[in-house]
């Protein structure tokens, strides 16, 4: 089918002043709806992306993203680490140990998740190292019993670097005539980190060997490997590859990832993002189907013209093309306006809110914004597809015009 004639006639009809004022209003309403829906969808999606990205950085950067548990101590963990580091998406691998404990100060007592790390490796790989003062992890020395606390946890305990706290671990319980006695040691607070999330109130770091001694386990024994990933969301996929590599080396192991502790939080964020996108997409869909009303009126108005064109040999597919072009031009106009305005608002959202005096997160805090090109492409394609579907009924109705009937009284 030659598209030049339908494009030309459809464009001329689209530019021409509508004889029916109500049809013009419906068209304007449809274009405005697409414009507002697309702009709102871009802004809201970008804010939700930014929120998810910040949660990923602030929470999953401080907790194990993927952990391997071996049934027998690894005699040479570096060999397994080299194999695992070769997997795409893996930044590095370190020995790890963790325990649920209570941390007690002179003022308070709190539950905490204690992670044992090798400081020279954590300094390179852990995001927490970037949120403490320089060299904080390197100051963790085996046998010195030093601990790095989250800022909120330190505030609740009313301690600061240089103070002493007591760690009590349930993993090192011994039984006495008076009952079970947890393992406990005094630790010196060497530093405080701040990730800006809930992990600041429930996470502490100590040297790997000090953690082992606290748990009353051999300090040179390695049963866990912690994998640092480029994207924590790839952990479920990588877990299968990790187990295959370790099995090939004769190592029996199981894996766990961040979903065991924070999966519910990210599932809620993902559900909220999807529901917001669906709600705003419905605005675009309603606006797109308003084009049906405008095109039906156009078909009625141009019935005589269509009949004349069909008597001149215009094919049914070309008649459909004329009205499809009109509908798509309305969609493209609203889509382009929505993209331009939505992207501009997104890139300047915090500045606009400051100008208008709107504060959502509090003084000095900014809304996280992340503009995703993949989502923009999906919005563009989705809007055009919905509009194309909406134009099919009026186009088919125009194609079914019978010239003899339409021109009977002309």
Can you offer a commentary on this structure?
With 410 residues, the protein is of the alpha+beta class. The protein is built from 13 helices and 10 strands. It has helices spanning 4-15, 21-58, 77-85, 119-125, 151-157, 208-214, 235-248, 259-301, 303-311, 316-347, 349-356, 373-399, 403-406, and strands spanning 66-70, 90-95, 97-104, 109-117, 146-150, 164-176, 179-193, 203-207, 224-229, 253-257. The chain has a 6-stranded mixed beta barrel. Strands 2-9-1-10 form a 4-stranded antiparallel β-sheet, sandwiched between helices. A hairpin with a 2-residue loop joins strand 6 (164-176) and strand 7. Helix 2 runs antiparallel to helix 8 (259-301). The mean pLDDT is 83.
- Taking the alpha carbons of the first and last residues, their distance comes to 30 Å
What is the number of helices? 13
Rounded Rg = 32 Å
Helix content: 40-55%
Give the structural class. alpha+beta
> What percent of residues are in strands?
15-25%
Strand order of the largest sheet: 3-4-8-5-7-6
Shape: elongated
Low-pLDDT ranges: none
Largest sheet: 6 strands, mixed, barrel
Averaging pLDDT over every residue, what do you get?
83
Count all strands and give the number.
10
H and E string = HHEHEEEHEHEEEHEHEHHHHHH
